[in-house]
Structures are given as structure tokens and as C-alpha cells.
Design goal:
The protein is about 60% helix and about 10% strand. The chain is an alpha/beta fold. The protein has four domains: about 5-55 and about 450-475, no CATH class; about 60-180, Bacterial polysaccharide co-polymerase-like; about 180-425, no CATH class; about 480-725, 3-Layer(aba) Sandwich (Rossmann fold), CATH 3.40.50. It starts with a helix and ends with a strand. It is a multi-pass membrane protein. GO terms for molecular function: ATP binding; non-membrane spanning protein tyrosine kinase activity.
């Protein structure tokens, strides 16, 4: 493996890591499908028990439509939810579940209905009990509010929804009508007073006409004296001032009552419908009459343009220049109106309630006082002109004055009547029921589809959780992919469990005893994987995580496969603590590496004196020798490097059998001198954490891990690791008898050299 590819194994990208983790978890789920099935059955049983025993809950719904009427410039816009941030629809939704509305609903319900869902012994909890079962929401981008109540009885649910809706409508009606009704009451009192005065004037006119014998007693007589004309002008001005004062006085009285009652002063602003009051209130907020007139004119143009747009769309379509120009003009006008509304709201929001109340009261009082002083002045001048006309013209002048008085009073009376008639007792806001609550016999809880979904999700969650816990507690590798993913190293070969053979020496090794077995082919696969590696593999160390994993067996059989292809191979028993390789080959008691390292002779002479040559053709063995008391210190000396350098120079392949990596430092010494390490493991024996610690130990010392060899794989676990069918290598083809093949010499290229190989 080259440096970049080794780094890829060591540090995988995060996306690949996540995908590997998911894949491994899914494999664990498939392996423990019985756990998943049991979890599903358990959750399904609980779901069925819940569905059978849970109390039935029924639901009733009603729908309300909230509309705004009138052209009050100070009224808030009731816009669809989601269209603007300052929409009032959420406020109306929250009002439905307010204590005021719910208390009104409780008064409309019988105790039998309340007893179904509420504790009758604790009336103080009734409002909160209704609120828990009541839900109000706005339909998206509409002015429609849905009211829903859930109860144990379907009839009670419908009756409670009806009571809540009716209480809400009563609350809205009383809130929006309060200020308007007060204004109507004041205007009606003024109207009645003017009616009485008008009746007195008409009687006086009739009596005076009879006294002077005038034939024309109509109020529209054109026979007037200049003094009478002057008196008429004063009278006309006096009537206009009186009309304006009466309207402002009514608005002032209503505002004072609202302040004394602690009502929201902005609600008064929204209900102030008279034109004069509107102009003053807008003036307080900084809006001139010209701006208000411009707004009304723009609204009129928008309506006219929309009618014209509908006609042009039918005639020309969307892409016509006139249609596009008209659409742009409508958009500009609507933007102007929205800006006007935003300015109005912004100025209202910037004024707190006390300051706004005092400002409006002060403005209205000042304006009423000014009108009152103006009225007194005009009254005095009118009386003086009237007296002069009376003195000049006598009874005729008096008759004309009476006519003027009657005309003024009639005009004032008619204006008040029209104003009272135009006032809408319902205010600007209208709430109406568009869907009545109905009794629904189908329970909404427990819901069979919802229970099924919860069973599926609960079964998956519980099953996966149990699988995850068992997978964490199960400290064994389960697949090749899991080994490669967690160790960040490739699996070079998978060796099936070999039959035990008695005795010692080369004859008991699998490659010699049964060269056609699947295990022998696995050793040849290991040789090929090393030959094709991107990294130098001329000197490799074979180690494991625990004693008894088969590292010595793998080292010996691998050395034989190299020798069989004509490579000069040196097999070194580097385990000076428990020399299993020396025992396996029957070389116990023979001098070996320990004597070489202690010898003072040149390294070549020392090795040649202890080397076991040609135990098979092209295979030499350097046994352990006598076990030293200090193997780590002995290997740490300079002669170990000299030994390995001599071996690499004289052999095509050097294989070193070393102690288990985590248990001794010998493997670290051999690994730093050699080209890399092969880690042998038994998935059914080695614990996952121990294997991972061994790989981390090698990585910490910067010793290249060439790959993993899975050893002694049982037939039951073979399908998870190798994929071999078992009969592919094990059973010879009886239809063809093996024939002798002449020996052919080939060559196998390695990164450093090319050596001859014999192929049988």
C-alpha cells in the first residue's frame, strides 16, 4: 500500500464513516431479526391492549368567520394569518380560550354537561378544565377560526363548542358596541333637545304670522331686509359651529367615559366613526386632511382599476401591455395603502395608553372650548343683528328671524338624525358562525391508524435499541466489513478451520499435508495479496492479539507458499518468549536467533552457524534458540537490525513470527525494522476491543499494518466472512483425473526485483 492509500485506511472521511456505521448496524439488525420480531410483537400487544382499554374521546368542531366592515381609517386591518406580521387573527384565536369567554360558556351549560369532563366539587378548576380540552386555530391564509372540543360524550362535545362560540360572539359584540352605543346615546339626547326647540320656534312663527296678518308664513320666503340678511348670515354661521361642537362634545363624552371605565383607548379610536372626530384623531397622529383625502382617492382608484383589469384580462390576457401597466399601477397604489396603514400602526404603537388618552382628551377639550367661545360670540352678534332687524322691520323682521331659526334647527336636527342612522351598532368587526357544531359518533381517540403508526415506530425503536445494546455488549467481530471498518485495514485472506494433525515438522503443515484444501488456497491468496501490495513486503512480521491465535501456523504456511514458487525465503522465529514456530517445526533445542544476538562474531558467520537450510527447497529457518531472560533488551540491541539487513540482502522474502502485539514490546522492535505487520485474529475468540487496541498500538508506533488475516473460521460462520461454497476447493472433479504437468518457470514481479517462480 502506498502512503496515501494507507492514510485512507487510517483516516476515512466522515461521510464514509457514517455510511459504514449504518451498514454495520443494518447487518446487526438482519443478524438478530428474531429480536426485531419479538420487539414488534411486544409493542403490538401493548398497542392492542391500549386500543381495547383506552376511553373513547369524541370531538366536535365549529368554524367562525371574522370580517371587517366600514372604512374607518383608524380600525386595524383583519388580514389573513401569515400575510402580515401584525395580523389580529392570532389575537381573536387566543380570545376563544380566554377566561372571560370560558366563564360565559360555563354559564350557558348545564351541570350535567359539565360533570362529564370536569370535577364538580372544584368549580375553580372548571375554566382550566375546559381550556385543556379546547383548541382554537386559524385556517392558514384565511380569516376562518376553527374551534374544537374533545369530550367523553359526543353530545356534550357539540354543546360545549356551541356554548363557547356563543360566549365568544357575545363578548365580541359587547366589546365592539360599547363605545358606539355611548356616542348614539349622547347624540340622541341632543336630537331630542333640538326637536323641542324646533317645535317652540314653529309655534312662535305661527302666532306671529297671525298677529301681523302675514300671508307668507313659509320658511323659504325671499322678502328680506339687508339687516335681516345680516342676521341670517350670523345665524347660518352659528348653526355650523353648533353642529361641529355637538359632534365633538359627543366624542369627548364617550372618550371620557372610556377612560373612567379603564377601557383600552385604542378600542375607542377604532370605534370613533364621525368624520370630524376622525380628522382630529388623525391630526393628533400627524396625518393631515389632504393625506386622508389622498388615501380615500387611492382606494377608489384601486377598486376602479381592479374592475378594469378583470375586463382587460378577459379581452387581451396577461401579456398585453395595457394589462401589465394596469397591474403595475394597482401594485403601486396597494403599496401606498399598506405604507399608510403601517405609518398609522407605527404611530399608534409609539404612543402609550396614558399619553394617548391625555393627548386626545386635551385636544378634544381644547377644540370644544374654542367652538363654544366661537358659538357664544356668534350668538351675541346674531342676537344684536336680530334685535336691529326687529327694531327696523318690526313684526316682519321678527317673522324672518323665526324662519331662519327654524331653518337652522331643522338642518341641525336632520344632520343628527342622519348621523345616528349611519352609526353601525355592530361596529367594524363582524364574527359569524359558518359551520355549526355537530355531534360526531366516531371517536378521535384512540385512533386505529395512529395506534398502528405508533406500534410500527415503537417496534422499530425498541428492536433497534435492543439490537444496538446487544451489539455493543457482544465483543466479537461479525463480518469482514466490520473488521475492515473498525481496524481501518484490509482483510488479506480468510483461512478456514483446519483439521488437527499430530506430530511436528513441515509434514504437518496444511500446505504440505493437503495442498488442495481451501485453507491451503487461502495461504496462497495471502501470498498473492502481499505480492500485489503497493508497499514493500520483502520483510513482514506476523503477530496476533493473544497467544494461540495461529500466528506461527500462518507464518510457516505462508513461508512454504513463497518457497513453492521459487522464492528464497527465510522464516525467523522472533518470539523469544514462547517460540511456537520452533516447536511446530520440531526444532526445539536447536541454536538460533538468541545465540546470534549474543554472539560477538560477525553477523553473517553467526547466522550461517545456526541457520537450518532447505527444510524444503528454497526455505531456510532461523529458530528461536535458547530462551533468554531479557528478550526485549536482547532484541533492542544493534545486532537485530544487522540480522534483518543481512536477511533482506540474501533472501527474496523474510517472514518473522513475533509475540502478540499488545503483550510484549518485541513486535514493536521487529515492526519498526521490517516493511510491515500482518495481524492474525480469530473472530470467534478474540475480543473486539483487544483487537482494536492492538491496531491502535501499532498505529501509535507508526508501524504499517499491511492487513488482517482471519484464521480458523468455522463452517457455521463462513457465510458471513468468505462467501466460499465449501465444495469449490474441497471436492476434486472425478470426471478428470489429475495429470502430471511439466514444470514451467515463470516470473513474479515485485516492486524491487523479479525472481523465477515454478508453477506446477
Amino acid at each position: 500500500m502506498n502512503e496515501s492509500s494507507w492514510i485512507q485506511w487510517a483516516v476515512p472521511d466522515s461521510a464514509s464513516h457514517i455510511l459504514h456505521a449504518i451498514a454495520q448496524f443494518l447487518v446487526a439488525v438482519r443478524r438478530r431479526w428474531q429480536i426485531m420480531l419479538g420487539a414488534f410483537l411486544a409493542v403490538a400487544l401493548l398497542g392492542a391492549l391500549y386500543y381495547a382499554t383506552a376511553p373513547r374521546i369524541y370531538s366536535a368542531k365549529a368554524e367562525l368567520l371574522i370580517l371587517q366592515t366600514g372604512d374607518n381609517a383608524l380600525s386595524p386591518t383583519i388580514e389573513a394569518q401569515g400575510s402580515r406580521e401584525n395580523s389580529l387573527i392570532p389575537t381573536f384565536v387566543n380570545l376563544i380560550t380566554s377566561a372571560k369567554v370560558l366563564e360565559g360558556a360555563i354559564q350557558k351549560l348545564s351541570r350535567e354537561d359539565l360533570a362529564v369532563d370536569l370535577n364538580m366539587d372544584k368549580p375553580e378548576t372548571w375554566v382550566e378544565g375546559l381550556r385543556r380540552n379546547l383548541a382554537a386555530s386559524a385556517v392558514y391564509r384565511t380569516n376562518i377560526i376553527t374551534v374544537e372540543y374533545r369530550s367523553k360524550d359526543p353530545g356534550v362535545a357539540a354543546r360545549i363548542v356551541g356554548a363557547v362560540v356563543q360566549s365568544y360572539l357575545d363578548f365580541m359584540r359587547s366589546t365592539t358596541q360599547g363605545t358606539t352605543a355611548e356616542i348614539i346615546r349622547i347624540l340622541t339626547t341632543e336630537k331630542d333637545d333640538i326637536a323641542a326647540r324646533l317645535s317652540e320656534k314653529e309655534q312662535a312663527l305661527q302666532q306671529l304670522s297671525q298677529q301681523i296678518g302675514a300671508l307668507d308664513v313659509g320658511v323659504n320666503s325671499q322678502t328680506v331686509h339687508p339687516l335681516v340678511e345680516r342676521a341670517k348670515a350670523f345665524n347660518q354661521a352659528l348653526v355650523e359651529v353648533q353642529k361641529e361642537r355637538v359632534q365633538l362634545a359627543a366624542s369627548l363624552q364617550a372618550l371620557e367615559n372610556a377612560v373612567q371605565q379603564g377601557a383600552d383607548i385604542r378600542q375607542y379610536l377604532f370605534a370613533a366613526d364621525d368624520t370630524l372626530g376622525q380628522q382630529i384623531l388623525l391630526g393628533v397622529l400627524g396625518f393631515s386632511r389632504e393625506e386622508t383625502a389622498a388615501r380615500l382617492e387611492v382606494e377608489r382608484k384601486v377598486v376602479e382599476d381592479r374592475v378594469e383589469l378583470a375586463r382587460l384580462l378577459q379581452e387581451f390576457g396577461n401579456n398585453h401591455p395595457r394589462v401589465q401597466a394596469l397591474q403595475q399601477r394597482i401594485a403601486a397604489n396597494e403599496a401606498f395603502l399598506l405604507a399608510y396603514q403601517d405609518r398609522l400602526r407605527a404611530r399608534l404603537d409609539n404612543l402609550n395608553i396614558p399619553e394617548l388618552s391625555q393627548m386626545l382628551l386635551g385636544t378634544l377639550r381644547q377644540r370644544v372650548n374654542e367652538l363654544w367661545q366661537k358659538e357664544m360670540s356668534l350668538q351675541a352678534q346674531y342676537e344684536l343683528a336680530r334685535q336691529e332687524a326687529a327694531n327696523l322691520a318690526g313684526g316682519l323682521a321678527q317673522l324672518e328671524m323665526l324662519k331662519n331659526d327654524i331653518t337652522g334647527l331643522r338642518e341641525l336636527y336632520g344632520g343628527l338624525v342622519r348621523r345616528i342612522t349611519s352609526l353601525d351598532l355592530a361596529g367594524d368587526l363582524r364574527a359569524s358562525v359558518i359551520t355549526e357544531p355537530r355531534e360526531n359518533r366516531s371517536p378521535v381517540s384512540p385512533s386505529l391508524p395512529r395506534v398502528l403508526i405508533m406500534v410500527i415506530l415503537g417496534g422499530l425503536t425498541l428492536g433497534m435499541f435492543v439490537v444496538y445494546v446487544m451489539d455493543v455488549l457482544d465483543d466479537r467481530f461479525r463480518s469482514v466489513e466490520e473488521i475492515q471498518w473498525q481496524l481501518r485495514a484490509p482483510v488479506l485472506s480468510i483461512i478456514r478451520e483446519m483439521p488437527p494433525r499430530e506430530g511436528e515438522g513441515v509434514e504437518v503443515l496444511e500446505v504440505v499435508a493437503d495442498p488442495n484444501s481451501p485453507a491451503s488456497e487461502s495461504f496462497r491468496t495471502l501470498r498473492t495479496a502481499l505480492a500485489l501490495s503497493d508497499r514493500p513486503t520483502g520483510a513482514v512480521v506476523v503477530t496476533s492479539t493473544q497467544p494461540g491465535d495461529g500466528k506461527s501456523t500462518v507464518s510457516a504456511n505462508l513461508a512454504l507458499t513463497y518457497a513453492h514458487v521459487g522464492k528464497r525465503t527465510l522464516l525467523v522465529d522472533g518470539d523469544l518468549r514462547r517460540p511456537g514456530l520452533t516447536q511446530l517445526l520440531g526444532l526445539r533445542g536447536e541454536p538460533g536467533i538468541s545465540e546470534v544476538l549474543r554472539d560477538t562474531a560477525p553477523i553473517a558467520e553467526a547466522i550461517q552457524a545456526r541457520l537450518k537450510k532447505n527444510i524444503v527447497p528454497d526455505l531456510d529457518v532461523l529458530p528461536c534458540g535458547r530462551r533468554p531472560a531479557n528478550p526485549a533488551e536482547l532484541l533492542a540491541g544493534p545486532r537485530t537490525a544487522e540480522l534483518l539487513n543481512w536477511a533482506v540482502e540474501h533472501y527474496d522474502q523474510v517472514i518473522i513470527d513475533s509475540p502478540p502485539a499488545p503483550l510484549a514490546s518485541d513486535t514493536a522492535i521487529w515492526g519498526r525494522l521490517a516493511d510491515g505487520v500482518i495481524l492474525v485474529l480469530q473472530p470467534e475468540k478474540n475480543k473486539r476491543r483487544a483487537v482494536i487496541r492492538a491496531a491502535e498500538y501499532l498505529a501509535l508506533l507508526k508501524i504499517p499494518l499491511l492487513g488482517i488475516v482471519i484464521n480458523r473460521l468455522s463452517n457455521e460462520k463462513e457465510k458471513d466472512y468468505s462467501g466460499y461454497s465449501g465444495d469449490y476447493y474441497g471436492q476434486p472433479d472425478e470426471s478428470h483425473e489429475e495429470k502430471e504437468v511439466p514444470e514451467i518457470t515463470e516470473s513474479i514481479s515485485t516492486p524491487e526485483r523479479t525472481v523465477p517462480r515454478r508453477v506446477a
